[in-house]
């Protein structure tokens, strides 16, 4: 059968949300669901390079309010529980008995939460840069490591958000309805996150944007989720790791990831015996870091043969 590399559609998730879904690869191949990061970033065609179109049948889904899903940037009825329900409804609609779950960063958060809720639906999990969705991880990344490695950006954050609880302050500014408030806050957050995402970032400073510069989408969804602890109970994903028993997994970790460092991934691996921890040396958070894409492609290939 001809690969469905160009087939896409909108899936009615209810509550006013229509999810953009793109199918890629061999309908008779190993089913895979790809979970993008952010939250809020959406899928892109370049992510197809992770998969073998002859071996895999990949479901790329833009989560609520992300990518091409409608309405854009909508935070109404948009929580982790809603996203888990969407994935399971989509799997059943596509009549896929089980699928391989692939994700990075926020995609690992959602992937773990989904697998813990629906373990029987998972062939395996290939997860890159594990984020357990905790406030402690965010404080460590955007306060401790930001101030250590990028003090100028940290100073810009404090100047904008104040000394007390700067993360909550900047997130609330991003969600402020006044464009005079949220535009500059969103661009600052975007610049900070980009610097922390790469081992050798192209820019380590915050720059002012023109009044008509298009706003990045992810800061708004991230602010909503992060203010609400990713709509998870404290430590939930680690405490419920036992629900992953029997599911094979490969945890891919860049050694010098400033956003999602090895400690979180190692903590998960210690509670999930079926998971194999693999390191990519001399690499940062982004999937575009040297060696990361190839390592993730290999992890997907290996789990496809289990």
UniProtKB/TrEMBL annotation:
Keywords: Aminopeptidase, Cytoplasm, Hydrolase, Protease. It holds the Pfam family Abhydrolase_1. It is found in: Cytoplasm. The active site is at residues 105, 257, 285. It catalyses: Release of N-terminal proline from a peptide. Residues 31-288 form the AB hydrolase-1 domain. One of its GO terms (cellular component) is cytoplasm. Coiled coil: none annotated. GO terms for molecular function: aminopeptidase activity. Its EC number is 3.4.11.5. One of its GO terms (biological process) is proteolysis. InterPro entries: AB_hydrolase_1, AB_hydrolase_fold, Peptidase_S33, Pro_iminopeptidase. It comes from the Bacteria. It is an enzyme of class 3 (hydrolase). Belongs to the peptidase S33 family. PANTHER family: PROLINE IMINOPEPTIDASE. This is Proline iminopeptidase. It comes from Falsigemmobacter intermedius.
């Amino acid at each position: 059968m001809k690969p469905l590399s160009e087939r896409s559609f909108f899936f009615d998730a209810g509550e006013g949300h229509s999810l953009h879904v793109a199918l890629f690869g061999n309908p008779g191949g190993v089913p895979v669901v790809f979970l993008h990061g952010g939250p809020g970033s959406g899928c892109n065609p370049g992510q197809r390079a992770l998969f073998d179109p002859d071996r895999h049948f990949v479901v790329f889904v833009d989560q609520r309010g992300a990518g091409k899903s409608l309405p854009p940037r909508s935070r109404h009825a948009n929580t982790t529980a809603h996203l888990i329900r969407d994935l399971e409804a989509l799997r059943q609609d596509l009549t896929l008995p089980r699928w391989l779950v692939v994700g990075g960063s926020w995609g690992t958060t959602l992937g773990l939460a989904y697998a813990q809720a629906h373990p029987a639906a998972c062939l395996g999990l290939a997860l890159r840069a594990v984020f357990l969705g905790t406030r402690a991880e965010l404080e460590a990344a955007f306060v401790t490591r930001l101030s250590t490695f990028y003090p100028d950006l940290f100073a810009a954050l404090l100047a904008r958000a104040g000394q007390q609880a700067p993360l909550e302050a900047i997130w609330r500014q991003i969600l402020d309805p006044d464009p005079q408030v949220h535009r500059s806050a969103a661009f600052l957050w975007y610049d900070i996150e980009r610097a922390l995402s790469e081992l050798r970032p192209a820019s380590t400073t915050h720059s002012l944007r023109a009044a008509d510069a298009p706003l990045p989408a992810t800061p708004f969804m991230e602010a909503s989720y992060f203010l609400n602890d990713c709509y998870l109970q404290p430590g939930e994903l680690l405490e419920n790791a036992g629900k992953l028993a029997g599911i094979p997994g490969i945890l891919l970790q860049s050694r010098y990831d400033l956003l999602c460092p090895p400690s979180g991934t190692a903590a998960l691996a210690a509670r999930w015996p079926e998971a194999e921890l693999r390191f990519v040396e001399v690499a940062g958070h982004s999937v575009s870091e040297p060696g990361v894409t190839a390592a993730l492609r290999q992890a997907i290939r290996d789990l496809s043969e289990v």
